[in-house]
Amino acid sequence: MADAQTSDAVPKAKRKGDKGYKKETIKEKLDRLPVGVTTPTASASLPGGNNISSVDDAKKFATETLPDLGLKLKKTIKDVKKEIKGLKKEFNGRDYEGIKVEKQLIRQGTGNNLTFLEFYTLKEFTQPNPYNRHLFWYDRKANRIVEGIGRDRATNDLMHGPYKKYLGDLVVEEGWYYLGAKDGRWELYDKNYNLLNKEYYERGFYQDSEISYYDESKTKIKEVKPKLYGKVTGEYLTFNESGTLAEQGMMDDSVKVGRWIEYYPTGNRRKKETQYGKDCYDNGFESYVVYEYDEKGKITFESPKIKKN
To answer: Where are the stretches annotated Disordered (predicted)?
Structure first.
């Protein structure tokens, strides 16, 4: 059962001298910057043509460049850390991106499985981006986080601002939300604080996604081609000029996978469902049409491959 808690319930971060503390490398320290910290636009120049304008740039420099330059750059990296630290802007707990928020806490489980969720929601409802297909809400009645394009606003608030999940006193997941959609850097850890996954979002879509538009002012999205670490991977979307959904499906390294769905221009009725392989290595799988529908939602075709119960 989940219980709402006061701020005293949130575990404190481990500090030097505490049990379990260990000295971290520069990269690890940059990796572990708190979820409530952002960096305004600024930059620092280093030898070799390296420019640093964010914590992620500094982390990349420390990881990829330092081994090649040797010990003589230790002082330079230290100076860069100071510059980055000076650029930090702490989340004030009252508003995020100019929109007022309020803090929420959820406690789940008991004993070794005790977890805490620390996050923020909109203080007053603000309309989210209509092109976002995955929105996250705090259901106050059920006291849990749920996903859905639309929810009852009388009992549900959109997530907005920093999010952290604790297992005991360890952070096992952290990221940001912007009007219900994932935003910024998201990281997932195991109970030993080993990094399991890291993804970067920009207000609901992978940060490096290729987005095309119908208009020059870039208000009407035509296509979202997901890109993760340079590969076309993730949820692919196309929209009609009216803003309704035209097609959606998953990509795995430029290969269509799973169930793809086409919609009629209204965007709320399915036109066709096509099944593809489970991943990009499923070369032997032959895609096939699963269902076809008329404009009223009636099935006009059903694949003989569908197993009957």
So the answer is: 1-25
- Please list the residues that pair with 104 across neighbouring strands: 119
Measured CA distances, 137 to 98, 161, 218 (Å)? 19, 12, 27
| Domain total in the chain | 3
> Which two three-digit tokens encode residue 144?
């849990």
Task: Report the 10 Å Cβ neighbour count for 219.
Answer: 10
Q: What angle do CA 159, 161, 166 make, to 5 degrees?
A: 85
**pLDDT at residue 76 greater than cutoff 60:** no
Q: 100: which 2 tokens?
A: 């007022």
Those residues whose C-beta lies under 8 Å from the C-beta of residue 249, and which sit 6 or more positions away, are 235, 236, 256, 257, 258, 259, 260, 261, 274, 276
Q: Are residues 240 and 291 in the same domain?
A: yes
What is the SS3 assignment for 81?
A: helix
Look at the alpha carbons of 279, 280, 286, 288 in this order and tell me if their dihedral is positive or negative: positive
Confidence of residue 227 (pLDDT cuts 50, 70, 90): very high
For the chain, percent of residues with pLDDT exceeding 90: 64
Burial class (CB in 10 A: 0-12, 13-18, 19+), 224: buried
CATH number at residue 286: 2.20.110
Q: How far apart are CA 253 and CA 280, in angstroms?
A: 6
Taking the CA atoms of 84, 85, 86 and 90 in sequence, report the sign of the dihedral they define: positive
